[in-house]
Each structure stands twice: as C-alpha cells, then as structure tokens.
Specification:
mainly alpha; Hydantoin permease; 76% helix; 0% strand; disordered N terminus
Amino acid sequence: MSTNHHTPSFSSKVGLILATAGSAVGLGNIWKFPYVAGENGGGAFLIIYLLCVLIFGLPLLMTELFIGKRSGKSAFGAFRAIRNNSRWQWLSWLCMITAILIMGFYFVVTGWCFHYLIAAIGHVFRGADAITLTEHFQSLTGNLPVTFGYTLLAILLTAAVLWFDVNKGIERLSKILMPLLLIMMFLMAGRVLMLDGSNVGMSFFFQADFSKITPQVVLAAMGQCFFSLSIGMGALITYGAYMPKSQSISATSLQVVLLDTAVAILAGVIIFPAVFAFGVDPAEGPQLVFVVLPAIFEQMSFSWLSSILFFSLLCIAAVTSTISLMEVAVAFVTDASSHTKHPINRHKAVILVGVIIVLMAALCILSPTIFGWFDKISSCWLMPLIALAMALFVGWFINKDDILHEFGSQRGWKHHLAFVYLQIIRYFIPLAILAIFLNGLGIW
C-alpha cells in the first residue's frame, strides 16, 4: 500500500470536522429533507431516518474516510493504492462521473438560491401570494440567460475558494460558514417557534404515527440518508486523504453525522411550525422552499428579515457542498495527471473542471429533461452503486486486522464495535442497497 505524502492535509481537527460536515450539510438537509419528511408522515419518517443514519450512514461514512486516509489519495488513486493493482480503477472513474453529474444540476439549484437571496434583499416578494411566487419561480427557470448568470456566479465563487490550497481555501471558509450556518438556523428556529400554531408543526415532526411506516417510507429514508450525508460521490474519500494520520476516523465520522443530522432536524423545526401555523400542506414537495416558504414569510412580521435570513442559510449550505463536489474533480485531475509527462497543477485543474461544470450546467438549464436525468441517475443509481462497491471493497478485499486496528484496539469494547462495523458493511449494507435497487426497478 502506497501513501501519497504530497497530498495536502487539514491543519486542525476542527477544520477537518467542519469541512467534512460542510460536505455533507447542503441542500439535501434544508431543501430536500423537510419536504421528504412531510410527504412520508413527519415523525414516523424522522425515526426511520435516524435509524438509517445510524445503521447505514455512519458505517458508510467511516468506510469512505477509511479508504481516503488509508490510501492518502483522492478518489482517483485510492482503490488502486490500497490493493496495489488497477482492478478497482473503474470505481474511481465512477466517483468522478457521479460528482460531475451532480454538479451539473446542483450548481443550477445553487444559482436559484442566490437569485432568491438577492430578490429577498430587494424585497421583491413584498405582498406576494403563492400564485405570484409560483409564477416568479417559473419565470426564473424559463429565463435561460438569468438562470445561467446565477449558475455561473455560483461556479465562479466555488472556483475562487478552490483556487487556494486546502488550508487557505476549504478549511478557512468552513470554519466561518459552518458556525454561521448553525447560528442563523437557531435564530430562524426561534423566530418561527413564536408563531401561533407552531406547536402543531412540532407535534407533526416529532410525534410518530407508526401506522404510517411502510416499506416506501423506509426506502425514502434510506435514500435521503445517502443524499444528505454525501455518500457515494468520492467527496468523503478525498477529505479522508486530507486527514492527519493521528485523527480518529470513528470519532470524526460520529461528529460529522451528529452535526449533519442536527442541521436536518433544525431545518424541520424551522419549516414545519411555519407550515402548520399558516395552514399549508406539509407534503407540498420540492416547491416548499422556493414557493411556499416565501409566501409564508410575507404573512409574518419582519418578513423582509425572515426571507433574507432563510435564503442566506440556504446559500451557505449549498456552497459548502459545491466546494466539496468540485474538490473531488480537482483532486481527481491533479492526481490523474501527476504520473504523466504534463502534470496539471491545482490552478489549471480548477479552470479545467470549471469549464466542464459550466458545460454540464448549461445542458441542465437548456433541458429540464437532462436536469432530471442527471439527478435520477446520480442519486438513485450511481451513489447507491458506489456505496455498495465500497462496502464490498473494504469488507471483503482489505485485511480484517487492518480494519480492526484502524477502528478499535485489539481487545476490549472498541474491538467489539469494530467487529460489528465489519459485519454491517460485509452483509447488512449490501443487502439493504440491493433492496433499494430492486425497488427502483419496480421488482420490490
């Protein structure tokens, strides 16, 4: 097993945790989690989701960080370095393809967030109702030059962060954005909890009606777990390669999972009390953030500040994820070219990846069908497939003693927990992901 000593690394444990949590925390937590929970029974979904995070999310997050830390390489060379052969190189390319597809539509949505933040600052939504806001959203998505402009802004801002090395770019910004995100979410939660009728929304979100738990709810929770924790796209492998060798994978993974889950729950605390306080159906779907919530804000006192606060935190969450996604591709390009006659440095890699993302995003803007394909192919097929392959790779093709040594001591309770982890990724997770594929095919 080779180790890439020239790979950059985070300078502190706090920087690593916040950057990795920033990779996981994104639109999946604030935009997608609330409406999926609303469509699947609220409290019942929350319980199943928390179980999925514990049983699937935490072990898979540990697995990706282990692959990165063990190899000292990005997604490009990690599997080949650990096995000392190129049989698993296909999985490296699959990570890269998935990250590129996700960035294609994710940057477009991030552009929408920027637009709504600027519109909120300009008080464009003053007095608007749900019909007016629906027309506004349709006008935005139908105006290709405007949508492309905001998307390009999101790409350029992300590229500007990655232009610097890991310490001066990703780590430094994560130390600012993640605490700011949490502060803003607590402020927003405090604001909506003062609304009359907010207790009904809290009851919906935290009181479980177990009769609503169905196989579809379980599968929805598993899929949301993958999306929310950014599992199966190579970002966590890349950040694992940047881990200091003294950093504990299990402790880091647990802290990241707790922080990511806290943000998702806070998003529910913000959205459901507001939704129920104004008599809105919690199962409104993806339009909940861009249409329903602005209409609710306009009925609240201090509507201008509420809109600005919410869309600011939405933009921050989006950017922390676009940074990690783009870093996957940048690290991939630099590593892939390092053994050629013409190696590509970080600056050139940022430019090259930026151009590719602009082209992919342009396709998504021009064609809603392509937008949907990129989303469905990456989220429903490639991410679970990569997670399945990584679980099999670590569970069956890496020496068991190396895994037990990394995640626990040779004896005692830590050793037993490491043994449980190994059984989960060998047997339980592959079977569960197989169930997701069978569901996607309509077989089960």
